[in-house]
Amino acid sequence: MTNVTVSQIASAKEMRAFVRFNYELYKECPYAVPDLLEDTLEVLDARCNPAFCFCEAAFFLARRDGRIVGRVAAIINTRANECWNRQEVRFGWIDFIDDLEVSRALLDAVEQWGRKKGMTRIVGPLGFTDLDPEGMLIEGFDQLSTLCTIYNYPYYPQHLAQLGFEKETGWVERKVFIPRGEHEANNAKYFRVAQIAQQRYGFRVRHFNSKKEIKKGGYVQKLLGVVNRAYAELYGYSALDENQMDWYADRFLMLIDRRFLSVVENAEGEIIGVGVCIPSLSRAVQKAKGKLFPFGWWYIARELWFKRKHQILDMLLVGVLPEYQDKGANALFFADMIPNGISGGYEWAETHPQLEDNKASQMQWKNLDCVIHKRRAVFCKAL
């Protein structure tokens, strides 16, 4: 017999507790990076996040004896369901103590909500869009997480297996070491391919003098337009509309380091690819305890804007238009970023999650010194 109760969030106070439960559960874990309170509250707010124009969501808290022991979001992305011809309810932002009754109660709440909406499958963890954290960690529990990915304890996937969930798809993440000495990449491998692409096709890397130039030219929106086309065939992707692009533009612009923004153009000046890295904010967000205010902003600002010795770069995204993916455009990213990584004293770059069955994406790392150090998966079950 269990005394676990699950209720749908009905107040701003409960939503704040929903977000902060992640911090409370992981505050003693050296590898977890907590949800950033102010940012996550905005993402989960229908008044702020334009994804709610095509998504429905409900948020649940599990309690035992009045104490919060778990949380989960239930999401229906109508645009993705129509695109992929599915009737799926997603679960996301899921956290729970190591108690099967708690995880069962949370997922039962999502399943019941989904059935009432006519859904036939449950899948997750996924967010509203691909730009939200997705995929449950299944390997790499002893590796530092990133601001834009999910960290979870090893018992999470064990619970899902016991509750009848099966793996639907998976991602891998790599630790890519910045070339030093006689490594092949440092002996002009990417630089040679980049030079050939420039000479044969007229490709070039566009650099920016200021964030004002990026904003004035609407370049973040243009880059997200490239992402729309580059990611269109990837698992569960739903295209970003203009309102979403504008919303993400303001959020991303604050994080962008111009040294690690590589925009590749063709001979006509059209953007055909983008690569974005930032200095890792993982330790800064840990020190901030997942809050910008009153003093957490200082730790983050110090990493982004002050000249400090960094160890890790986070790759937020890499995308190339399909018709240019076999013409060396990716090589221009690496040829542009590697020298900046070396001069900045970085030791490695952490890739964003990449689908394990995406052969083209996996092959782009073959000439770099790297290792797969994390794996994550999405799980599903019929309702």
What is the count of helical runs? 13
Number of domains: 2
Low-confidence stretches: none
Mean pLDDT metric: 89
Percentage of residues in helical conformation: 25-40%
Portion of residues in beta strands equals: 25-35%
CATH top-level class of the largest domain: Alpha Beta
Compute the separation of the termini in Å. Answer: 24 Å
Largest sheet: 14 strands, mixed
Give a count of the beta strands, DSSP E runs of length 2 or more.
14
Q: Give the structural class.
A: alpha+beta
Shape: globular
Specify Rg, calculated over alpha carbons: 21 Å
Order of helices and strands: EHHEEHEHEEHEHEHHHEEHHEHEEHE
CATH architecture of the largest domain: 3-Layer(aba) Sandwich
| The CATH superfamily title of the largest domain | Gcn5-related N-acetyltransferase (GNAT)
